[in-house]
Design goal:
The protein is mainly beta. The protein contains one helix and twelve strands; from the N terminus they run H-E-E-E-E-E-E-E-E-E-E-E-E. The protein starts with 9 loop residues before the first helix and ends in an 8-residue tail after the last strand.
């Protein structure tokens, strides 16, 4: 018996399998398979922050008072820890992406290096894929969606000084210690 293997992402592979058989597992003419992304309960919303260095490090001499400024536009998008089929707001004041585009600057205040960082406020909420139709009533599990808050509510720009703290442009880390609730 000859078989073919197709390189589809895992969620698409599972969806293709579910579309080709009915609930009893017998191959049949498939009924339309509908996919919906929905919150799990109230979504358990909570605030998380993505910290991003948005400027190159500015090296300053011991007697200099250097200044670094951010003026280019960059976009931060939503993320998920698994196979959600598509983005949903979950009813929260969030966006699919947030553009960093204003001018912000920092003085070195005598430090050897200085950089501008952006704390992008996100609402994290729990969702799942829900399949209906010939794909059965299959639930693939729970996933956390991180979406930037509308107008970066709860976020801020800030200065980082000193070679022990300044990193490289684009370096980032998550802070998961935010409060429970939406933006």
């Amino acid at each position: 018996m000859l078989s073919q293997v197709y390189a589809l992402p895992a969620a698409e592979t599972r969806l293709q399998q579910l579309k080709t058989r009915n609930v009893t597992g017998v191959e049949d003419t498939p009924r339309p398979c509908q996919i919906a992304v929905e919150l799990v309960g109230d979504g358990d919303p909570h605030q998380n922050y993505l910290h991003i260095q948005i400027t190159e490090p500015m090296a300053c001499g011991p007697n200099d008072n250097c200044y670094v400024e951010h003026q280019t536009a960059e976009t931060v998008g939503w993320s998920v820890n698994g196979g959600i089929d598509h983005w949903i707001s979950g009813g929260f004041a969030v966006e699919q992406s947030w553009t960093i585009g204003a001018a912000y600057g920092c003085h070195s205040d005598g430090a050897d290096k200085v950089a501008v960082w952006h704390k992008v406020a996100h609402t994290a909420y729990t969702a799942r894929n829900r399949y209906r139709g010939d794909c059965g009533h299959y639930d693939e599990g729970h996933y956390i969606i991180w979406s930037p808050n509308h107008d970066n509510r709860g976020g801020e720009y800030y200065c980082v000084r000193g070679s022990g703290y300044v990193r490289n442009k684009g370096d980032q880390y998550w802070d998961y210690s935010g409060r429970a609730g939406g933006p």
